[in-house]
Amino acid sequence: MSDTHSLDYTLGVIAGMLFAMIFAVIVTAVHKKRNKQKPYYDERQQIARGKAYEIGFFTLMFYFIVYGFVDTLGVVWCENFVGIFIGILIAIAVFVVTAIRKDAYIRINENIKSFLILGAVIVVIEAVCTVMNFIDGTFLENGKLSTSSIAMFVGILWLVILIALLVHNRKLKKEEAVEE
Amino acid sequence: MKNLKLKSARAAKDMSQQALAEAVGVSRQTINAIEKGDYNPTINLCIAICKELDKTLDELFWE
Predict the structure, then answer these.
(1) Other CB atoms within 10 A of residue A133 CB
(2) What pTM was computed for the model?
(3) Under a CB-based contact definition with an 8 Å cutoff, are residues B35 and B3 in contact?
(4) Of A91, A132, A134, A139, most Cβ neighbours within 10 A?
(5) What residues of chain A score a pLDDT lower than 50?
(6) pLDDT value, residue A180
């Protein structure tokens, strides 16, 4: 990240954050309206989520140790903020995938379809942003991953979540067919 | 260890895992995990399952 940012850049960041917040509020409101019964996690799911949080936390710690070690060696492959953000995204991915595998991510009474649609929309938006950043040449700055590259990593995170959800859903349907 | 007593009691009531899960307020996978012996339910959930299947705790959860 450059040391000084223009007013346009700052305003752009603020506008982006505001847009994300408004989008989140609208999605939450629609989600609540569709799910008439209040979604919740049962006792097994809560325990499974606790375990998933634990695994995600230790993944984050491990990542920071490796990141710090690589940085100490003088290998600078990304801006500091990007490096930290990637670690957080990896930890989130580990938590979410673990929770999905233990069937503890989607709550009871929650509509998985709206979640999948939301995820797909985010993946497309992030993919478009990534392509634009490549074209603009802002993806890399001085040979390092710049903050613009974060869009690609967020897109990858959501793609991983979507794939994990679809695979798990398929497995559940097979299980249900066997049970019936 | 598999809980076959729960599975047979549920089958005797002609209930699917999903139906029992909805009746006691948990996910179908939780009922499946209990039957497979992968999850030990809390006493509250045990009681809810017993009430739903008209069984006692001893009949379903005591070895």
Answers:
(1) 19
(2) 0.83
(3) yes
(4) A91
(5) 1-3
(6) 63
Per residue in B5-35, pLDDT (tens digit) is: 999 999 999 999 999 999 999 999 999 999 9
With CA atoms as reference, the chain B residue closest to A44 would be B30
- Portion 3-62 of B in contact with A at CB < 8 A: 16-18, 25-30, 32-33, 39, 41-42, 44-45
Both structure tokens of A1: 């990240």
* Distance to chain A for B21, nearest Cα, Å: 10
The tokens for A171 are 């497995």
Measured in whole angstroms, the distance separating CA A134 from the mean position of its chain's CA atoms is 21
Q: Which residues of B12-28 are buried (b: 16+ CB within 10 A; e: fewer)?
A: eeebebeebbbbbebbb
Beta strands in chain A (DSSP E): 140-141, 144-145
User: ∠B32-B23-B7 over CA atoms, to 5°?
Assistant: 35
Cross-strand partners of A145: A78, A140
Rounded (5°) CA angle A179-B5-B8: 45
Q: Which of A167, A28, A154 is nearest to A92 (CA)?
A: A154
Count of other CB atoms within 10 angstroms of residue A38: 10
**B34 token code pair:** 């209990």
Buried-state track A152-163, b at ≥16 Cβ within 10 A, e below 16: bbbbbbbbbbbe
ipTM of the complex: 0.91
pLDDT at A175: 84
The predicted structure's pLDDT at residue A12: 79
